[in-house]
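Dear support,

I submitted the protein below through the web form. The confirmation email said the job was done, but the results page showed an empty box. After a refresh the structure appeared. I'm attaching both so you can tell me whether what I see now is the final result or a partial one.
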Amino acid sequence: MRQAGSTMSIRNLVWGLAAIHGSCFLLPSQASAFSVWHTNHHAMQNQPSSCSSASQPPPRSVHSVCLESTKIHQDIEQLMEKHDPILLFVSRLLPSNVADDASALYAWCRRLDEIADNPDHYNSSSSSSLEVLEQLEDWQHRFELLCKGEPVDAMDAALYQCLQRNPEMGREPFVDMMAGMKADATEQRRIPTLPALETYGYQVAGTVGLMLLPLLKAPLEAKDPAIALGTAIQLVNILRDATPDAAMGRIYLPQDVLQAHGVVEEDVFQLALQQPPSPSQSSSLEGYCQVVKIVADRAEALLQEAEVGKTTLPGLGPLLVQIIIELYRGYLEQLETSNYNNLLPGGERVKISTGRKLAATLKAFAMVIQGR
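What the results page shows now:
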């Protein structure tokens, strides 16, 4: 199952909060570490989901759970220590109220990822797809309960408190993220059109920007650029992961655009699994690469939209956004260099070198300093 890595985005969220709030402890080397994390598309964990409906306890009152604030803090710290220990360190650099809210968002998205990205479900069986969908439905029910003030556990209570402190965050990004997860709970994932692909990108990545903005006290004008950035990241990650996705029977390029360029599903699978392509596949490969270019061009347009809107963010927000933009432009440039053939041998995903990541980071610093 592809999932744009809401937890990956929450990692970015915590790093971004630390940068925007001006922590002097975040050195360039640590920012570089962030950029490495940001390039990861899949957050596939080997641990079984802890959110199975079979083990769900009955709802508890907000009063009873909120009395356990110390336990809430400890539970989330343990979750971070298990999965993302560096983030635990970074979260301690944030103002306490921001750290609490960011940690609550992290915990919610991390546990959602454990449902959607459990590798035990990747055996192409309909029963597994149904199991994932059932657990996602259960997770949505839990979310509805916590919104009513009836959290199931301490971590749900932490998100309830976050929503109470930030009412402008609303329910929309959470519901939309779960909708994107549900769309992936299928054996043969397909995207019908380019607009549908952008909608999916918003659901699993752009939603994190909407969660983040209230914590930053960002103005309303920052909403569209934040969504554009998340969606662009997702489109690029889809282009990066074409080969491993095809190996799982999944095609995320829009079906209507593929068909318009004379490419059918069988062509995609053959091109991905037969490396190098045979001479008879040259026509299909040419059409396929044209489709990749169309999606890449749309991703670049969204990056430009985010770039224009980055000045709406407070503090060091514009710098953080520019770093992300330049890193993802690096992937688009790599695709252009390969004539938009993203089907790599050995199941590889499109990558860029550490040196290129560093160059992108330095370019972003120079652009922001120059006021560009």
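Response: this is the final, complete result; the empty box was a page-load delay. The CA atoms of residues 267 and 284 lie 6 Å apart.
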